[in-house]
Design a protein that fits this description.
By secondary structure, the chain is mainly α. The chain contains 9 helices and no strands.
C-alpha cells in the first residue's frame, strides 16, 4: 500500500496557524487599547463632571491608539520579514562559497542530537544533496527562523488595529449612557471583567492556569489604568476650575 504524502507545511499551518496564531496579535491590540483608554478616560473623568469631554477624549484616544498600534504591528512584522530575507541571502551565499563550513554545521547539529558514525554521515549527505532542503535546514535548525508569510504585515496591522478599537470602546461605553460617577464604576467593572475573561481564554488556547492568567491580566491592566485615574484626580484638585 502506497503511503499517503504528509504535507508538513500544511500540518503546521493547521495546527499552529489560524486563530491560535493570531491570538497574540489580538490580545496585544485589544489589551493595549482597553488599558490605555481606560486610564485616559478615568483620568479625565476624575478631573471633570462633563461626560462629553470624557467621551471626546476617549474617542480621540481610541483612534490614535488603533492607528499607532496598527503602524507598530506593520513595521515590526515588516522588519521581521526583512531580517529573515537578509539571513536567507547570507545562507545562500555561504552554501555556495563555503559549502564545507555549512556541511560541518549540519554535522554539528546532528552530532549534538546524539547521532554518530555512518548514520550521521548519511544524514549529512542526504540533507546537503538537495539545495532547498539544505537551505531550509540552515534557516530552521541553525538560526531558528521560520519563513513569515508575505502578506503578514498587512494582516497583523489590520488585526492589531481593529482589536485596539474593540478594546478601547469597552471602557468608553458606560459614559455614553450614565452620569460620571456611575459610569466610572461601570467602566472599571466591565473593563476588569473583560481583562479577566481574555486572560482566561488565552490560557485555554496556550498554556497556564485559566483563573491565574485571568487574574494576572486583570491586575496588570487595573494597575495601569489606576495610574491614569490618579493623575487625573491629582490634576483635578491642583488645577483651578
Amino acid at each position: 500500500m502506497k503511503r499517503k504524502y504528509f504535507d508538513m507545511e500544511k500540518h503546521v499551518e493547521l495546527e499552529h496557524g489560524g486563530s491560535a496564531a493570531r491570538l497574540r496579535e489580538f490580545i496585544l491590540g485589544w489589551q493595549d487599547g482597553l488599558v490605555n483608554v481606560l486610564g485616559i478616560i478615568l483620568g479625565v473623568a476624575a478631573a471633570t463632571a462633563d461626560t462629553r469631554i470624557v467621551i471626546i477624549a476617549g474617542l480621540a484616544a481610541t483612534f490614535a491608539e488603533s492607528i499607532s498600534m496598527a503602524a507598530v504591528a506593520y513595521t515590526s512584522t515588516k522588519a521581521e520579514i526583512d531580517y529573515y530575507q537578509s539571513q536567507l541571502e547570507k545562507e545562500k551565499d555561504w552554501i555556495k562559497n563555503r559549502p564545507q563550513d555549512e556541511r560541518d554545521e549540519v554535522y554539528e547539529v546532528y552530532y549534538r542530537k546524539g547521532f554518530r558514525g555512518s548514520l550521521l554521515d548519511q544524514i549529512v549527505k542526504k540533507i546537503t544533496s538537495n539545495h532547498k532542503v539544505w537551505l531550509d535546514f540552515m534557516m530552521n535548525e541553525e538560526l531558528g527562523l521560520e519563513k513569515p508569510a508575505a502578506d503578514k504585515p498587512v494582516q497583523d496591522a489590520i488585526l492589531v488595529g481593529a482589536s485596539a478599537v474593540i478594546g478601547s470602546l469597552i471602557p468608553l461605553v458606560p459614559f455614553i449612557f450614565l452620569p460620571i460617577q456611575p459610569a466610572i464604576a461601570a467602566s472599571v467593572g466591565i473593563s476588569l471583567a473583560s481583562l479577566f475573561a481574555v486572560g482566561y481564554v488565552k490560557s485555554k488556547k496556550t498554556v497556564g492556569t485559566p483563573w491565574r492568567e485571568g487574574v494576572e491580566m486583570m491586575v496588570v491592566g487595573g494597575l495601569a489604568a489606576g495610574v491614569g485615574y490618579a493623575v487625573g484626580a491629582v490634576l483635578g484638585v491642583a488645577l483651578p476650575g
